[in-house]
Specification:
Structural class: alpha/beta
Number of helices: 5
EC number: 2.1.1.171
Oligomer: single chain
Protein name: 16S rRNA (Guanine(966)-N(2))-methyltransferase RsmD
GO molecular function: 16S rRNA (guanine(966)-N(2))-methyltransferase activity; nucleic acid binding
Number of domains: 1
Keywords: Methyltransferase, Transferase
Strand order of the largest sheet: 3-2-1-4-5-8-7-6
Largest sheet: 8 strands, mixed
Radius of gyration: 15 Å
Enzyme class: transferase
Helix content: 25-40%
CATH class: Alpha Beta
Length: about 190
C-alpha cells in the first residue's frame, strides 16, 4: 500500500500482520480522493480519520495538503503501526493520534470545540459502529458547516439516507466496497 499523490507520493505504508485491519484498496482510495478533489480543496483542511488503522486515508489527505489530521484508532497494536506510518511520512507535527474508543474520542473532540472539513470513517464491515458513529459525528457538531463525512462500507449494506443531522449526498460502489458521502442537512 502506497501513498497515491502529493508530497509523499509513492511512499510505502506499513500494515499490521493478520486480519486486524482492512486497508482501503489503492483504486478505491484514488477514486475517493478524486471525488473529494472535485468538491473541495484539501489545502489547509482539517481532517478526521475514524477507525484509522494504518492511517492511509488521513496520510493521503495530509500528502495532498491538508493542514491537520486527527487519527482515531482504539487497537494499541494497530496504533503502533499508525504511529510508524505518520512518523515515516514526516507528518507528526500535523497529526494527532487518539488511542480511544471511537465514541469517547468523538466526545473528547467535541468538548474541545473541534470541527473538521473532511471526516473518514472506515470500520470493519461487520462493525456495530455503523449504527452509532455517523450519528455522533453530526450530533456532536464535529463537521464544519460545509464538511463531509465519508463512510466506507460493504456495498451490500448501504447506510440510511438520513443519519441524525446528516443526509447522504452521494454513494459510489467499487466491487464489494461502497463509499457513502454525508453532509449536514442544512449545508
Amino acid at each position: 500500500m502506497r501513498v497515491i499523490a502529493g508530497s509523499v507520493r509513492g511512499m510505502k505504508l506499513a500494515a499490521p500482520r493478520g486480519m486486524q485491519t482492512r486497508p482501503t484498496a489503492d483504486r478505491v482510495r484514488e477514486a475517493l480522493f478524486s471525488i473529494v478533489a472535485s468538491r473541495r480543496d484539501l489545502e489547509e483542511a482539517q481532517v478526521l480519520d475514524i477507525c484509522a488503522g494504518t492511517g492511509s486515508l488521513g496520510i493521503e489527505a495530509l500528502s495532498r495538503g491538508a493542514a491537520f489530521c486527527c487519527f482515531v484508532e482504539h487497537d494499541r497494536h494497530v496504533q503502533a503501526v499508525l504511529e510508524k506510518n505518520v512518523e515515516a511520512t514526516g507528518f507528526t507535527a500535523r497529526s494527532q493520534i487518539l488511542t480511544l474508543d471511537c465514541l469517547k474520542a468523538l466526545r473528547l473532540l467535541a468538548s474541545q470545540g473541534r470541527r473538521f472539513d473532511v471526516a473518514f470513517f472506515d470500520p470493519p464491515y461487520a462493525s456495530a459502529l455503523y449504527d452509532t458513529v455517523p450519528e455522533a459525528v453530526g450530533g456532536l457538531s464535529l463537521l464544519a458547516d460545509d464538511g463531509v463525512l465519508i463512510v466506507e462500507c460493504a456495498a451490500r449494506n448501504p447506510l440510511p439516507e438520513r443519519v441524525g443531522t446528516l443526509i447522504k449526498c452521494d454513494r459510489r460502489v467499487y466491487g464489494d466496497t461502497a463509499l457513502e458521502f454525508f453532509m449536514l442537512e442544512d449545508a
